[in-house]
Amino acid sequence: MTADPIAANDDAQQSPDAQESPHAHRSYREVTDSRGRVYRVGESDRQILGLPRWTMVALPWLAMLAISVFEYAFGAAEDTLAKAHHWSSTNTFWVLSVWIFFQAGVSFPTGKLREKGILTSRAAMIIGSFLSLIGFVSLSHAPNVAAALLGFGVLGGIGSGLIYSTCVNMVGKWYPERRGGKTGFVNGAFAYGAVPFIFLFSYGFNTSNYRTVLDLVGFYVLALTLVSGLFFKDPPKNWWPEAVDPLHRAGDAKSTVALAKNPPAARQYTSGEALRTGIVPLMWFCMLCCAGVSIFGISFQVPFAKEMGFGPLVAASSMGVMAVINGTGRGVVGWLSDRMGRRTTLTYVCLVLAVAQFGVLGAGEMRSEALFLFFAFLSGFGGGAFYPLFASLVPDYFGENNNASNYGMVYSAKLVSGLFGGGLGAVVVSAWGYDGAYTTAGVISLLAAGLSLLLRQPGGPPRERHRPRRPGRPGVRRSATV
């Protein structure tokens, strides 16, 4: 294991958000492990950020809380929107589907722009905030469905996607040694943040007030995301917390356990290198299955509850329960994955998701409200818990430096799953009924569990480019001040 000498003021080693003023000075060193991976140590979070790093958990959490209303509350607003705008159910389906397409699709290009220094995390948040506002204003004042598709679907999708991808990647950069629980906590807000709006849209949203309500929701999203985003900042590339020894993977007890179960990536992979390992396509297909089943549940659980004769309170409550558990479950499995290992936890989550699909179907056919709510609980848990696991697995396998684009590739599976879970789900429900649809969803979840067993952290010889060593005595660690 060696320590690399460092050139002073080496801007190439910093992320675009981590540039310092000419008068800022910090000492750091780079150490290299036996696999050739470089760690930049010696700088505290306060030296880089001016704040403790937990703020890069709290602020992304707040922003994710705000944008959750886009996806998880839309189903509760569909009937009123259809009546107010004279849309068919197909129209409202396409508005949400286009939103899902752009929300997921913007993740990879956003990551590339951030890693090239063209777009900072702060700029991404600010742009996303105003586009999100436009999304809701378009939904409330759209003269026709085409305007809603462009405003809410395209612009709102891009805005919320910018915020989502920036928030998820921010946490992993600041907590490389223990990212599971933190990523799960932030990711969870994307679900349970919608709960108040699910009930608002179910009981206090009608054709006489829909414009006012949607406009106010848009400004609520703008306020939370904009205030949060103004403080966003990435750490320098290869940064590692000073309190944790990266070579011996030792620090506090929690970090030591987490690193033992989820060792750091062998090196920093570019998106092309990550793709060529074959693990990214496997992750992509596994997420496609999980996200498709999850979106199917979000889209059809309330209609299924109503068809089974459950009242509107049970139908809305089942969706509220799903959203709450969907969100809190993400935090729980993130915490568990730090202790059990990310891949193992993912397999269990897929199995829970499978059981939930069969359980919701059985409880509905039995007309048991209690069982229906219980399996809605399980469906919500399994239908969200896989997101933070993939968000943590990607940097575990491929490193943090290019995580924005690497995770963007995997998360792009949601592009297809939006149609797969909603559009194809509607076709299956129409052809085979809810029996066939929920059975198919359960089988797909089992397939995802099987695929998860094949995931392995790639290794191989290091390919990182090291700067030439400066003359000096062997074994002497050189520090840099920036």
Please provide a written account of the structure.
By secondary structure, the chain is mainly alpha-helical. It is built from 18 helices and four strands. Strands 1, 2, 3 and 4 form a four-stranded antiparallel beta sheet that branches. The N terminus and C terminus are likely disordered.
Mean pLDDT: 85
Largest sheet: 4 strands, antiparallel
Quaternary class: single chain
Low-pLDDT residue spans: 1-13, 460-482
Strand proportion? under 5%
Number of helices, counting only DSSP H or I runs of 4 residues or more: 18
Count of distinct strands: 4
Fraction of helical residues: 55-70%
Q: What class do helices, strands and sheet pairing give?
A: mainly alpha
Distance between the termini: 24 Å
Q: How many whole angstroms does the radius of gyration measure?
A: 23 Å
Order of helices and strands: EEEHHHHHHHHHHHHHHHHHHE
Q: How would the global form be characterised?
A: globular
Condensed summary:
By secondary structure, this protein is mainly alpha-helical.
Features:
482 residues, disordered C terminus, 4 strands, disordered N terminus, mainly alpha, 69% helix, four-stranded antiparallel sheet
Summarize the SSE layout with pairings.
Blueprint (H helix, E strand, L loop, with lengths): L1 E3 L22 E6 L5 E4 L3 H5 L5 H18 L1 H12 L3 H17 L1 H9 L5 H21 L3 H30 L4 H14 L2 H9 L6 H20 L23 H9 L9 H6 L2 H29 L4 H29 L1 H25 L2 H30 L4 H9 L1 H40 L27 E2 L1
Antiparallel strand pairs: 1-2, 2-3, 2-4
Helix pairs in contact: 2-7, 2-8, 2-10, 3-4, 3-9, 4-7, 4-18, 5-17, 6-7, 6-10, 7-8, 7-17, 8-14, 8-16, 9-14, 11-14, 13-14, 13-15, 13-16, 13-17, 13-18, 14-15, 14-16, 15-16, 15-18, 16-17
